[in-house]
Amino acid sequence: MDFISVILEGFVNNILTKPEFFIGILVFVGYMLLSRPIHEAFSGFIKATVGYMILGVGAGGLVVTFRPILAGLNGRFGLNAAVIDPYFGLNAVNKALESIGLSTSWTMIALLIGFTLNILLVMARKITKCRTLFITGHIMVQQATTATWIVFMAFPQYRNLTGAVMVGVFVGVYWAVATNLIVRPTQRVTENAGFVIGHQQMFAIWATDKVAGKLGDPKKKLDDLKLPDWLSIFHDNIVATGTLMLVFFGIIMVILGPEYMRELDPKFSAKLAFPTYIVSKSLSFAVYLAILMTGVRMFVGELTESFQGISNKILPGVLPAVDCAAVYGFGSPNAVLFGFIFGALGQFIAIAGLLVFKSPILIITGFVPVFFDNATLAIFAEKRGGAKAAAIVPFISGILQVLGGAVAVAMFKLQGFGGWHGNIDQSSMWLAQGFLMNNLGIVGYVIAIVGMLAIPIIQFKRAKSPEHYFDNEPLSDEEVEAEYA
């Protein structure tokens, strides 16, 4: 038994939570199944692993550099508020579990159960209609931890192995169903690149794909916006990102002040002038975004080609579900920036509303939801509804992230722990499912699970061409029009 535990622990610590190696191994195995020479398989492993690591450097740089600035508003003004960010949420849940005498060891058990269940649901795809495998390890850890608190709080009698199994089933079904839900939208955006998104906004992407076409004209793209000659420089993604971030974060850093920024950032030395620091810090946003997109292009190319081997010979018709940043290399480069700006605007207005109406729960913007959720939604919105939809959808998402986050903090009793997961799926879909569990007990839990399992079956029954459901080919323009008629 100890031997099995060591193997499982080693798998979690060295493969499952290291998505770069997971992706690299998948690429290596895929090329071998395609009967490629071993040196080509090794080359694919290196390029995919390095590509994902580059993506991680870009994403990590954005998070580490800019999350403290947004969260600094909390400390600077002495607010007793919750930061909506999965890392703050992770810390909050750990403290909450410790407050009731538990640790996150149950989370690791739930993580393995959930991942295994995702595989089983895919293997039984003729019945379940699930065709996607969630492989974004660090996201799985975050979600399993948050779900542990939701389930353990709703069912105090099951704060044991039974509860861990319930958490594993909940997250495993969510990973399989939510990623399966967005196969068609992702294939359209990426032109059948061979993956789907496995992150924290899949239900929101599905909703975006359904409504964005009604919000704007898909032919009026962001890149087609007619600007005065002097504004045409903003058609360049680097110029647009650098300039807007200089304004956006520049204002926030001026509000926080140089003394407080030096407390937040040890690298901000006394010899460095505040204006120089602001310019340098703000422009680093464009640097990390360019790094991130470079990594995306590198690993997506290898994964797309090699996964055909796994898809054809081991799990036919199955797609890997990867980090949401993988779609940033598709569509308009300015959609990422557009989504972030309008999502932040929506969040700031919603936070102002909480202050005006003296909400007992105050929310502080977290970087991960406001950037990664809304940038992703903007890409899908622009595809279906053009520039107008790319602005409206992230704006509404920003409002929902704040209001849903405030309700979640109150419902899940996380006041005083400083954070909530905050991403749009967790502040909407999981919020509703948590409400069912809190108020209906086991019946509510069963409704949540069965309700999710029914979604891919309904998808299959409603498919215009069910005979092509598992081949994952993108729809033609005529088929898209028929689907949305």
TrEMBL record:
Compartments it resides in: Cell membrane
Protein function: The phosphoenolpyruvate-dependent sugar phosphotransferase system (sugar PTS), a major carbohydrate active transport system, catalyzes the phosphorylation of incoming sugar substrates concomitantly with their translocation across the cell membrane. The enzyme II UlaABC PTS system is involved in ascorbate transport.
Entry keywords, A to Z: Cell membrane, Membrane, Phosphotransferase system, Sugar transport, Transmembrane, Transmembrane helix, Transport
Upper classification of the organism: Bacteria, Fusobacteriati, Fusobacteriota, Fusobacteriia, Fusobacteriales
Membrane-related topology note: Multi-pass membrane protein
Principal location listed in the UniProt entry: membrane
InterPro entries per the UniProt record, alphabetical: Ascorbate-PTS_EIIC, PTS_sugar-sp_permease
Subunit record text: Homodimer.
Originating organism: Psychrilyobacter piezotolerans
Family: Belongs to the UlaA family.
Residues annotated as transmembrane: 21-38, 50-70, 100-121, 133-155, 161-183, 238-257, 277-300, 335-355, 361-380, 392-412, 432-455
Protein's recorded name: Ascorbate-specific PTS system EIIC component
One Pfam match: EIIC-GAT
Family annotation (PANTHER family): ASCORBATE-SPECIFIC PTS SYSTEM EIIC COMPONENT
Coiled-coil portions: none
